[in-house]
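Problem: given the chain below (204 residues), write out its structure.
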Amino acid sequence: MRFLCVMIGYLCGCFLTAQIVARYKTGKSACKIGSGNPGMANMGRLFGIKWAAITLFGDVLKTIIPCVICRYVFFPSLGQIAILYAGLGAALGHAFPFWNKFRGGKSVAVTCTYIVLFSPLYGVIVELAGLCITIATGYLAIGALVIPILYLILVFWFYGLEAGLISVAGAALLFFLHRDSLRRIVHKTEKRVDLLAKLKNHSL
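Solution.
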């Protein structure tokens, strides 16, 4: 059952919303424009906040669907833990879609979605912490990685070993996907992002 949860999540995660947006806007693959990352941030930089929001909505939806059907339809006997397995699968699908030569995005939005579905309170807390870290440092990667690290500590403490180990796997996946960004941060070549300024500009 656990493996099937992961596989259902993986298949749903393989749908890359950014590819649809990029094809609609340019006729090209999302992997061949901008940063080459088929995710919300790249679509936002290229096409604006509206298309970033559309990309985010699609990525959130494709995570919710497998988590909900695994938890409540296919494998209710697994309980809440089914959400973590399906969510991890969705993150893997987003990162390594089989139809795109296993080249996908960084799975931040997917991860943020399934951790909130599993534990809304702790999920929101760690995501707010990640946002604060991003604002303070200017590095999206650091903010993104703070989220699963803090979350796995809370999950181990409040939900036990199995949930904790799945959360470790989710954190390890994000670290792997952000390895290039971390390397650039170490060498001080990574570009900083002023989120407050961007939000201010979009609100005007």
